[in-house]
Amino acid sequence: MTEHAFPTAAEVGDLLKGFGVALPPQGMAARTPLTGQVLGHVDVDSPHDVTRKIGEAHAAFEHWRNIPAPQRGELVRVYGDLLRQHKVALGRLVSIEAGKILSEGLGEVQEMIDICDFAVGLSRQLYGLTIATERPGHRMMETWHPLGVVGIISAFNFPVAVWCWNAALALVCGDALVWKPSEKTPLSALVCQSLLQRAMAKVAGVPAGLSQLIIGGAEVGEVLVNDPRVPLISATGSTRMGRSVGPKVAARFGRSLLELGGNNGMIVTPSADLDLAVRAILFAAVGTAGQRCTTLRRLFVHTGIYDALMPQLSKAYAQVRVGSPLLPDTLIGPLIDKAAYTAMQTALEQAKAAGGKVQGGARQLVAQQPEAYYVQPALVEMPAQSEVMQHETFAPILYVLKYTDLAEAIKLHNAVPQGLASSIFTTDLREAEIFLSAAGSDCGIANVNIGPSGAEIGGAFGGEKETGGGRESGSDSWRNYMRRATNTINYSRALPLAQGVRFDL
Ligand code: NAD
To answer: Does residue 214 share a domain with residue 287?
Structure first.
């Protein structure tokens, strides 16, 4: 296989063949943001196909739920091993399809491997409580049962890891899967599904149909969202998508786990280690070309260190290398498409109109790749937290504000509709603890002396307010994928009623 800085359809075709994935001659175009070119076509599922696939997943669930959880873990263990074997090729495909640099593409596959390991351990730890009962000769406990078919809707920017967070946990919890990946990244999804089918064939007792893939846009996702045989919809994407999905699932009394947009902030206080802060800001604000849900978008710098920090940050911004994400020196790959570029330019215009001083933001590599959208990251010094800063623009724009008082900075930090990730840089214990306290950051993720992005799988991941309130990945997020039953067992010969109620004839 020949590997180019700018991939050709032939290279990608070879890569897919290595996974046993063959593309049809027609269908929905799969493009790469590296060149804007079409890499191949994929079949789109009709509403009828989606309904049929949900039915197949449901039939598989009825078998799978009876398999002991540690045996279900064996499937995830085998899948994790396959991911280890194919990490380099899959990581490269993620880079080609989503535009993130190779080390981030590989990192995404590593995240899949990590969550598989986590889920395998979990398959022996789906603990319920034993609860003290007020009645003699009784025992009370909680049991956790498989939930059903889990519908997973994923975004383009984490085309494989977010699905795997859900899939690995759901599988050990005894659920079946129906996955609707982003229409912008169907190829990585076909590969993940093909590898999972391979793992299923290696493990005895796994019902066919346990994992289904449905390809297409929002209309395909909506069929999944509306189907009452899907008790949980785990949806990752924009707040706009969540506003549509959440009420539909609620209307049929389903559960939704929403992982939506962020508008993440960092406070840099006078005692901060500035060298550390600059490095953290750079990765968090420009990494993945600003296309992470946890990307740093708002920076609050104390007036006392503003003039020391900003020149360092400016210098770092000027040195960032933009280009093909497949080249080892590149730090920023392309934006996903023209719409993302237009949204970035519009936001920068709005910031200027609000008195912002903009550095960077211009389009790059135009002559070499006219159909692709590479940009210099933008650093914008703002006089106030104006309207444009209330929204998530999915591009590398960092708005910077000065502050004088920590309480004022925390208030400003929290004064946006989203609540995903946040951080403070300080060496003052009081400031750190205030930021983490009930009166501090209102986000689902709050960090000290590391940036808001790049979470590990061990913690629960998600955010508050318009970020949707969902939690997935580590900690006790597995409970989302199971249903809880409270059981009371009477081993006495009497029938005492709770709260001392008498009901004797
Ligand atoms: P998007 O909302 O455009 O699409 C996400 C997914 O939802 C796609 O699969 C899309 O087809 C589907 N979809 C859209 N409308 C739908 C509808 N009405 N019904 C059913 N499905 C629908 O998002 P995107 O551009 O792919 O991704 C970027 C967004 O995702 C950003 O806002 C980012 O912050 C967010 N994101 C959040 C997290 C998180 O964990 N909080 C993680 C990654 C990305």
So the answer is: no
